Amino acid sequence: MKSRTHSLEPVVFNTFNAIVMIALGIVTLYPFLNTIAVSFNAGNDTLRGGIYLWPRIWTWQNYNAVFAGGTIFHAFWVSVARTLIATVLSLFLTSMLAYTISRKEYVFRQPITIIVVLTMYFNAGLIPNYFLIKDLHLLNHFAVYVVPGLISAFNMIVIRTYMQTLPEGLIESAKVDGAGDFRTFFSIILPLCQPVLATVALFVAVGQWNSWFDTFLYASSKLNLSTLQYELMKLLSSASLSNSNPSVANGNNPAAINMVTPLSIRASITIVASLPILVVYPFLQKYFVHGLQLGGVKE
């Protein structure tokens, strides 16, 4: 009787686990699939409700309204440029700082750590930050997207914590062989930190890609520095105003925006903004799994 009970336990657990995972998958995927359906449905028909997983009246008009005028394409490449440049530089500088303060022989590692961590809890505020950016001559300059976020306290702590789990013997062996700190960092530490660096890279890239408020504050007067998220935000605002005055929305193509509604344009904007991240994420997912496996092994 006991052996029969033990033989049923895996079956019961696997069945329950499968049901829970399927339910979580449905709950997770449904909002995104519903957004896709709304984005391809006629705007006036969407107001009736009842759109779930399939459009009732198919149309490309929502996406035509998003891409009307051509500014979206230039803004897309600006967003790509800021995301790539900021992610690479932030990873490089943050990981170098993390390696420095992870070394026990560095006498100033504790004070520097405290100073960096304090920036996570205290902020001067929006107006002082604006005047700082202005005094640094970064207004209406592409560098305003990159320089302020070069070092992240949170990401530095994440990378430093991961580096502290690496075997100390590897670094000692490198020093015995005559390798300096730079050689040790580039030849040993960075290759071993690929999982955590990929994780942090995704954090930085998603933050850079979704950012629009810094464009509004520091570069709104320069059209060639407008980012994708900022253009989409302006389009959404115009679509909302079109309820009372349709001709206000999207001056480049008023006729196109008249055929859509704020709900349908919001769905289209969500898909356009999230698609690049969805394309990149599968390539980084393996590093998340690998990082969890390494993090569970102690020397």
Describe the structure.
This protein is mainly α and 299 residues long. It has two domains: 2-68 and 227-295, no CATH class; 71-218, MetI-like fold. It has helices at residues 2-39, 43-46, 61-67, 71-102, 109-121, 126-135, 153-164, 168-176, 181-192, 194-210, 213-218, 228-241, 254-258, 262-295. Helix 1 runs antiparallel to helix 14, helix 4 (71-102) crosses helix 12 (228-241) and helix 7 runs antiparallel to helix 10. The longest helix is centred in the first third of the chain and has 38 residues, at 2-39.
Strand content: under 5%
Q: Could you name the CATH topology of the largest domain?
A: MetI-like fold
Count of beta strands: 0
What is the level 1 CATH name of the largest domain? Mainly Alpha
Q: Name the CATH superfamily assignment of the largest domain.
A: MetI-like
Number of helices: 14
Helix content: over 70%
Number of domains: 2
- Calculate Rg over CA atoms: 25 Å
Uncertain residue ranges: 246-258, 294-299
CATH architecture of the largest domain: Orthogonal Bundle
Described by the principal axes of the CA atoms, the overall outline is: flat
Oligomer: single chain
Ends distance: 43 Å
The major β-sheet equals: none
Subcellular location: Cell membrane
Domain ABC transmembrane type-1: 76-284
Protein name: Carbohydrate ABC transporter permease
Main location: membrane
Q: Which helices and strands occur, and which strands form pairs?
A:
Blueprint lengths: L1 H38 L3 H4 L14 H7 L3 H32 L6 H13 L4 H10 L17 H12 L3 H9 L4 H12 L1 H17 L2 H6 L9 H14 L12 H5 L3 H34 L4
